[in-house]
Design goal:
It is a single chain. By secondary structure, the chain is mainly beta. It has helices at about 5-15, 35, 330, 360-365; strands spanning about 45-55, 75-85, 95-105, 110-125, 135-155, 165, 170, 180, 185-200, 205-215, 235-245, 260-270, 275-285, 290-300, 320-325, 345-355, 365-375. The radius of gyration is 23 Å and the shape is globular. The strands form two sheets. A 14-stranded antiparallel β-barrel has the order 1-2-3-4-5-9-10-11-12-13-14-15-16-17. The chain is about 5% helix and about 45% strand. The model is unreliable at about 1-25 and about 305-315 (pLDDT under 50). The chain has one domain: Beta Barrel (Porin), CATH 2.40.160.
Length: about 400
């Protein structure tokens, strides 16, 4: 079995071994699902990459089974990323595409949202990668991306009781009605941009940085179940994300050298004219074949819930997000020194510990699993394709 087919088979086993369940569409490991974070990430890796994401939130609540993968608020997302070969003499420009499928279910309640999207992105190296410098700004790339999705929300039949079915003494006197209600397909548009670069401190000493912004629900689609009687628009959401990566390892040049880096990150989501804000701040520690991270997630403003018709503010639980990941291909490539091993089958896990609101005892927290498989490297004669990589392809288990 050749390498691309073997990788695809490995990915299929991991993916189809998980139940096709879904939950609220937010991912704690947002850099493990980058196109969902910012469409400018489409085609970031130099090749073909399959990304599988699963999230199970608050599976301990009464509408769940108190077991991961069997209840709660579930989401899964599948993305196929493809970097395109260089076009003509445009060696300082790269293009990428990404196709995504998405499904979300709100617990065991009937609400379900499904959809698919196509993202395209363009990156240009503002500074020539052949440029030689001993100190200062050595790389500066700009990325632009957009995504068009087709979505639909439905209320699953068999969950509805009407007044004539309920007796004041006997209670429910007939089974629930089978009613099919849906939004009908609607389009959703997301756009994004990023600046990525590197600052050189010495011969082999760099700080890599990223600053990005995305605007989701640009067209504010109407998601009302009965558009003839009411309108319900999905409000725009603005996301800012930024961070940097700095090497902290020593023993460079020795046979025991394994690059290790620390990567502080920040994310801010705001929606509903600033009435809902979500902040995430923390850091990754990663090297070849592994990563770990700790993040604090909190909301503002902390308005109390009301029943007077006012818009509800951001009142999600503050949470501590702990994440871990390993490159299975690196672990299985025995018989060689760690720094020389193959890479490209990354499996990640995170656990969210609620710190306020819905507590960990009641909800049992949130579990998230992801898998990123490099199916094939990009085969291109482009002279500068390798120099256009801030992170060297699949050799880094997280890249931004």
């Amino acid at each position: 079995m050749n390498l691309p087919l073997r990788n695809l088979f490995f990915g299929a086993l991991l993916f189809f071994g998980l139940p096709a369940l879904a939950q609220d569409p937010f991912f704690s490991q947002f850099y493990a699902n980058r196109v969902y974070l910012n469409p400018a990430y489409a085609g970031l890796e130099a090749g073909t990459q399959l990304i599988l994401n699963y999230r199970d939130q608050w599976f301990g609540l009464p509408d769940a089974s108190s077991m991961p993968f069997q209840g709660g608020f579930r989401t899964y997302n599948v993305t196929l990323n493809q970097r395109l070969p260089c076009i003509g003499d445009m060696e300082r420009a790269t293009f990428g595409v990404a196709g995504s499928l998405f499904q979300d279910e709100t617990g065991v309640a009937p609400l379900k949202t499904t959809g698919g999207g196509l993202a395209v992105a363009f990156e240009y190296s503002v500074l020539d990668p052949d440029r030689r410098t001993s100190h200062g700004l050595s790389r500066l790339d700009v990325r632009l991306g957009s995504q068009l999705s087709l979505m639909q929300s439905t209320l699953v039949s068999g969950h509805y009781f009407f007044a004539y079915q309920v007796d004041p003494v006997a209670g429910v006197i007939s089974p629930p009605q089978i009613v099919n209600v849906g939004t009908g397909p609607y389009t959703n548009v997301n756009i994004g941009t990023m600046v990525r670069g590197a600052w050189k401190h010495g011969v082999h000493d760099y700080t890599i940085f990223t600053l990005g912004a995305s605007l989701s629900n640009v067209n504010e689609p109407d998601i009302a179940f009965d558009p003839e009687s009411t309108e319900s628009f999905l409000p725009r959401r603005t996301t800012l994300h930024m961070g940097f990566t700095r090497s902290i390892s020593s023993m460079r040049g020795t046979k025991h050298y394994t690059p290790t880096s620390v990567a502080p990150q920040f994310r801010w989501d705001t929606q509903h004219d600033g009435k809902m804000n979500l902040f995430t701040v923390g850091s990754y520690l990663f090297g070849k074949g592994f990563y770990t991270g700790a993040f604090y997630q909190f909301n503002t403003p902390r308005r109390p819930a009301t029943n007077d018709g006012s818009v509800i503010g951001g009142r999600n639980s503050n949470a501590l997000i702990l994440s871990w990941g390993l490159d299975a291909r690196t672990l299985l490539d025995v018989g060689r020194r760690w720094k020389d091993r193959e890479t490209g089958w990354i499996v990640g896990l995170s656990y969210d510990v609620p710190l306020s609101g819905v507590n960990a005892t009641a909800s049992l927290g949130t579990v998230e699993v992801n898998c990123r498989i490099m199916l094939a490297d990009l085969k291109s004669r482009c002279r500068m394709i390798n120099k256009n990589e801030l992170y060297p392809g699949a050799k880094c288990p997280v890249s931004f």
